[in-house]
Records
---
Amino acid sequence: MNPDKQVLILSGTGEAFALATLLFADGNYRVINSLAGRTKAPVEPPGEIHMGGFGGAEGLAKYLRSEVISAVIDATHPFAVQISRNAFQACNAAQVPYLQLHRPAWEKAEGDTWLPVANLDAAAELIARSNFRRIFLTTGRQEVKPFAELEDRWFLLRSVDPISDLPLKNFDTVLGRGPFYEQAETQLLNEHRIDSIVTKNSGGPATYGKIAAARKLGLPVIVIQRPAALDCNHVGRPADAVKWLKQLI
């Protein structure tokens, strides 16, 4: 194995899976996929798997040195701010090239009713001031705390794994793993009499179905805007990440 072709992919997204597939098929890279381990049965991409964290920026920098990693491609979720910051800091400390692979954000289209907010707290405050009563909350099960005080509202959540303990008074859950398409999302929203949606602007086609369904049904969507981007190299497609890597190595 060429020690100059050892690539660490910070994974967990469809783009990360696609990138790992491309590099593994190339046959000239040692592909190491880092997964957070938050789901019980993640879909593992091709290559080696590192499950769990590294111990912050310092721990990751130590790992990069010990494994002689030649490049880190951060293909985590666009809202995984702390992971990206730690990775950027670790790469700077270990003098390892760092690239962000984040899919482009969604753009508002004709017929959309978007209510943009800066963060989860602002989304909860907007709901509190509104007439929304049955909300499809798609921000992830680990980020429902800001909505806990909205005891007179009902929430629908979706998760890959069963959810048992949430700080919400009135809610129901459905299980599912994307991609999610417009027709099924429209049916889901109708069945649960949803009157509004809360989502992060994650981008990409896998979860765009709810945006299209909301447009079709005329439902408002509270859209949490993306955090400020790091001052680093970044691309929007796995193929572009491969090009960057080939130019680097």
Note: The chain has a mean pLDDT of 94.
---
Amino acid sequence: MKELVQYLARSLVSNPDAVEIKESANDSAQVLELKVAKEDLGRIIGRQGRTVKSIRTLLNTAASRDNRRVVLEIVEES
């Protein structure tokens, strides 16, 4: 799942070297935290969140094949 998100994120942003994904797991789901450069945040989120919603849909479809649950979180640097 991490590789899928990494591929999609790197394809969308202007600065693919700044894409970082941290993976963790809890009892019910696998959590992926996506961090991109500040200027690429809008590209990942998209208009009204459409892009990130599409990424989450693809991720959940791929995870459902393995009967798993995956949560994608976008991390903003402050």
Note: The domain at 2-75 is CATH 3.30.300.20 (GMP Synthetase; Chain A, domain 3).
